[in-house]
Amino acid sequence: MEQKSSVKSFGGTQGVYSHASTALSCDMNFAVYLPEGNGPFPVLYWLSGLTCTEENFITKAGAQRVASELGLVIVAPDTSPRGEGVPDDPEGAYDFGLGAGFYLNATQEPWSKHYKMYDYSTQELPALIAKEFPVDAGRAGVFGHSMGGHGAMTIHLKNPDKFKTCSAFSPIVAPSQVPWGKKAFSNYLGSNESAWAEYDATALVAKQPSKAEILIDQGAADNFLVEQLKPQLFANAASEAGQAYVLRMQDGYDHSYYFIASFIEDHLRWHAERL
Ligand SMILES: N[C@@H](CCC(=O)N[C@@H](CS)C(=O)NCC(=O)O)C(=O)O
């Protein structure tokens, strides 16, 4: 692991690191906010949305002040494999390929060699963090935005003992049913839609609800709400399955990091109280 940058922030340190990922067969960057003190600290994994790298969250969400106060480590990985030889959307579209790994393990050529973001996020990165940083891996949660909200919810539902708490901003709750998800899943996972259900929070919650309460914030003025996000699909399935959740529709807010920055404190306190 190599440190690429380190700056002091609210008494702690905001760092960016790089390492050679085995799961993704490429070099990867990730960001870590480390509060002041010796730890071990509870750890939150933040999963970003389409087009993002490890930089968006640390520069725009304003999470450091409250993470410092609460003594939380926040790890923010990049959103896809990167570098020479990693295939991208043939048209260079923003919603597939680079910057759009969808936190799944691709099974289809040519994606399956590098696009293993599920293994990376759930296994390789947490193992590296536990080795290199003063975290209490038994107190870990996951949260994210849009595609990363989808990642957080599916990763929590599939690994409720490893990622004990979960929250999301503007998540793609039912990727199998919306254009962003259909494009990504048909390419990464192929045409057999039963494979898609493994990475669809609405399908997963119906068969394996967790004991945690999931917090979802959704801007009511989000341009992607009606076509891509559809939080009510998850809410309906969760209610039916007995999954505890809180869905807050936030009047006037859009899809951007201005929305995330407005409510990030609530999410950090939500996780800290439950870990
Ligand atoms: N604005 C993008 C749509 C993708 C988008 O809104 N990405 C969100 C996550 S789904 C984001 O966080 N973008 C980066 C940023 O705002 O810093 C476009 O239409 O090209």
Description:
Serine hydrolase involved in the detoxification of formaldehyde. It comes from Hyphococcus aureus. GO terms for molecular function: S-formylglutathione hydrolase activity. The chain has helices at 55-60, 64-70, 117-132, 147-158, 179-189, 193-196, 201-207, 225-229, 231-241, 257-274, and strands at residues 2-9, 12-21, 26-34, 41-47, 73-77, 135-145, 165-169, 213-219, 244-250. It has 275 residues and is α/β, with parallel strands linked by helices. The protein has a single domain, classed as Alpha/Beta hydrolase fold, catalytic domain (Rossmann fold, 3-Layer(aba) Sandwich). The protein has a 9-stranded mixed β-sheet with strand order 1-2-3-5-4-6-7-8-9, sandwiched between helices. The mean pLDDT is 98. The structure holds glutathione. The site of glutathione has 13 residues, from helix 1.
